[in-house]
Amino acid sequence: MIVDWGHAWPTITAAFLASIVEFVEALTVVLAVGTVRGWAGALIGTGGALALLLAIVVVFGPALTRIPLDEVQLVVGALLLLFGMRWLRKAVLRAAGILALHDEDIAYAKETETLSRLARVRGHWDSVAIATAFKITMLEGLEVIFIVIAVGAGGVGLLVPASVGALAALVLVAAMGVVVHRPLSAVPENTLKFIVGILLSAFGTFWVGEGLGLGWPGQDWSILGLTLGFLLFALLGVRLCRREAALRTSVSY
Question: CA triplet 204, 207, 212: central angle to 5 degrees?
Answer without folding.
Answer: 125
